[in-house]
Design brief:
2 strands, mainly alpha, 84 residues, two-stranded antiparallel ribbon
Length: 84
């Protein structure tokens, strides 16, 4: 296996373990306040669910940003562009 893939997997597992620990130690209900985006005092969830939701949103955004970054190389090998 690729060392880079193993490292990424270990980092994700470590973050998930931290999320579980934070969720177990923070069972209180918290309010999410985002003026002009969410209705006031409408979002009240346990802290553990908010941690998991924010991690999931961040993971999804990171996966989208990292996807499709590789371009295939052309077999031409010459310089492109039309300089003089």
């Amino acid at each position: 296996m690729n060392i880079k893939l193993i490292f990424k997997s270990l980092v994700i597992i470590a973050v998930l373990v931290l999320l579980v620990i934070m969720g177990l130690n923070n069972p209180e209900t918290v309010k999410l306040s985002m003026p002009n985006i969410l209705p006031p005092n409408k979002v009240q969830l346990p802290a553990a669910l908010m941690y998991i939701a924010f991690f999931g949103a961040g993971f999804l955004v990171g996966a989208i940003l990292m996807a499709g970054g590789k371009k295939s190389s052309s077999s031409g090998g010459g310089k492109s562009g039309g300089g003089k």
